[in-house]
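Title: Prediction job returns without error message
Component: structure pipeline
Severity: low
Priority: P3
Assignee: unassigned

Description:
Job completed but the reporter wants confirmation the result is attached to the right record. Sequence as submitted:
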Amino acid sequence: MQLVIIRPPFIYGPGARAKFAALMGAVKSCRSLPLGNLHNQNSLIALDNLVDFILTCVRHPAVAHQIFFVSDGQDLFTTELVHTMALAAGSASTLIVSSTMGFAGGC
């Protein structure tokens, strides 16, 4: 059996679940998100791009026994990501600096 390991980052786009769906839900429903003090960058990949990569791996024999870290090639700070998501959703969400880390899902 030949194996290929694909390590996708934050997956976004129509039909994307997990972290994307949770964050989009928070952006749509909350006026203020306690994420303003995060300064980390996130690698992203569109769901369609990930599917295309998987199909390429299925068809290409030279990928056997390889590990791939895939992304769209443009990393975003969490603040940029949330701002872009809010614009796309037509939301008025703003980021606030919070003294506690994390987001428990409440607004």
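Comment from assignee: result matches the submitted record. The chain has one domain: 4-95.
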